[in-house]
Amino acid sequence: MKKIFILWFLLGFMGISYGQTITIKEQETNNPIELVTLSSATSKVYATTNSKGQADISTFKDVEKIEIRSLGYKTIIKSYAELEAEGFVITLETSNLNLDEVVISGSRWRQSSDDIPSKIISISAKEVALQNPQTAADLLSVSGKVFVQKSQQGGGSPMIRGFATNRLLYSVDGVRMNTAIFRSGNLQNVINLDPFAIENTEVLFGPGSVIYGSDAIGGVMSFQTLTPQLSLTDDAFISGKANVRYSSANNEKTGHFDVNLGFKKWAFVTSITSWDYDNLRQGSHGPDDYIKDYYVERQDSTDVIISQKDKLLQIPSAYSQINIMQKIRFQPNENWDFQYGFHFSETSPYGRYDRHNRVRNGTARYAEWDYGPQIWMMNNLSLNYNAGNSIFDQMSLRLAHQWFEESRIDRAFNKTERNTQSEEVGAYSANLDFIKTIGEKNTFFYGVEYVLNDVNSEGELTDISTGLSEIGPARYPQSKWQSMAVYVTDEFKVSNQFTLSAGARYNHILLDAEFDTTFYPFPFTEASLSNGALTGSIGGVYRPNDSWVISANLGTAFRSPNVDDLGKVFDSEPGSVVVPNPDLKPEYAYNADLGIAKVFGDVVKVDITGYYTHLKDALVRRDFKLNGLDSIVYQGELSQVQAIQNAAIAKVYGVQAGVEVKLPKGFGFSTDVNFQKGEEELDNGETSPSRHAAPFFGVSRLNYKANKLQMEVNLAYQGKRDFEDLPEEEKEKTEFYALDENGNAFAPSWYTLNFKALYKLTDTFDVSGGIENLTDQRYRPYSSGISGAGRNFILSLTAHF
């Protein structure tokens, strides 16, 4: 008896239980569906199916309303008793016309989009498998709702609703990726993420500061990486995939491997990806202004202009990258779930192609202008606790450490001095989030957050003829940036048709910087900022019936000055230099948006969202004086002094619209279009178009799916932007744009016609690929310094196990 009692005690302590497994399959093919979400609004429990379409739903016992959702399938609602009566085997019907799905970006918790007034879209791993994006930046553009700018092949800077760079926020597994040196110029940090290792991507449009704090003005991009899957039986659960891919436009050679090893309580995921890209070939039909048919090479202590044999190659644009991810999960019982994730990404050095296009005195301005290796590492520990008490129903603690390294290397043509500026950022964060349901109508999401960024910046000057080096000017001061916040959101079910949400956040940010005046005579050696910001939102979702959704939202957002705003020194354009300005305060955004979605007869879905954002005290680059001087000598050139200042009011408004049509015989058609217009106040009181408000753009798709085959023909396009409609700061960047009959810069309209296909050869092997830019157009997305790929053949082979 004593032995039996001890065994019972140990089993109870270890949380060993024999749960109930459900299997979910696709109705048409009977194949298992991965990442189906099962949730209960009343009991706040959820489960997600593994690669075999299975999930443990023992925590749902006696639940009357279980919502079963997956992107691309019709949502069904059943009770536990009904699932039991059906033998715990469910089939889902294919449909792209859903008006609701499960999302996490709105509150960091799993929610139905029924209850969120903000516009949120998801990009699934299945869509990524069909489209074969080369980078995470390309992955975002798959949606047709995010515009991506590039200055080099190794990059990609998203633009959302007229905002970009440090006015957008990146979140990886719930952890803020933005650092104190995220700049107002184009950012490449999104390429640190591995599309093969991303389980789901969500984009929240509009302000997200209540949950995410500073920077979330235009939107939030939330990336959820592969979650370790536990075994639902006594046997180990092993799954994974291996992939090889080739693309012709840049001679891409990519290899990926990931494996999941799951036991009852422990699970492990390992992922490794390697990319290698040659110089990118642009198309043969388009503006000749985009062609640079030479590159610079060092020969016998002299920089030499080399004429290209293939003038369509964009040299230098080649680069390579490696990503490694290791995640560990421990679930001792149904209440606790521990997860640890390690992420590492490193690129090779790569040329910033737009800078290599710059000319001075009739020849190349630079012999070198490269980014050094871009390194990102993250350690992320999350603890999730599910058990109701008087304070919370669920609790989540996220502790993260990130490490960022980046550098810039430049050398003027036929000069021997190479300038290298290197930055390192240690980023530490802690998030404690809670969810509590009170009664049947109120659900509270609340939490606290602390973030610390430690910025170290160095400069080095090297004489390449002698190899001797000395300390050079750093780009940033040595700095510490801290953010402390408390926030709460209440989701109130007014009725079964109407949900009201309101939230508020108070954020306090501290910045301390120490300046080195060795190279520049700043009138200060230290600077500090202490800013408080209160933001809020209120909105509602009204569903008169299952085919209508009307949502409206009012919200504010802020961006506190960071180290890049306050302290950097760099050349923004030929003849200008940006210097530090310690007298800065936060900028605030005030936003309103209204969305309407309607499904007509389960055949047509129409989705339209209109928005307006007003930005006050905008941090912009303006002419400045340093020690009373409006010009100083920078890198051997007399340059106009500029600085970031709270000097403008800006506004952005626009419409996002989409149409989906379910056609017979497995066919479907969809179109997503985006119109936005932005204005920014100038020094003289006049206005200029906002730089990050992209021209009209969109994508139209014709799809076909039947059994093992999936195909798509799509047309991606962008409207024209004439010289007079360009932002003032863009008009002189002739290396970016085509030239009109008057020799003025403008952004031509363009389109690409693309074909994608995926065929399931066996249960193990898939082959996918296609042809991008079938008509071989030479095009350049607005504000980009490098052209898109010409005709590009893609072939990818994937093995699932």
3D structure, described in words:
- With 801 residues, the chain is mostly beta strands.
- The chain has a single domain (224-800), classed as Maltoporin, Chain A.
- The longest helix has 13 residues, at 2-14.
- It has a 22-stranded antiparallel barrel.
Descriptive key words:
22-stranded antiparallel beta barrel, 54 strands, signal, mainly beta, disordered N terminus, 801 residues, 5-stranded mixed β-sheet, Maltoporin, Chain A
Task: Give the overall silhouette.
Answer: globular
SS class: mainly beta
Q: How many separate helices? A: 7
CATH topology: Maltoporin, Chain A
Strand content: over 45%
Keywords: Cell outer membrane, Membrane, Receptor, Signal, TonB box, Transmembrane, Transmembrane beta strand, Transport
Domain TonB-dependent receptor plug: 114-220
Family: Belongs to the TonB-dependent receptor family.
Membrane topology: Multi-pass membrane protein
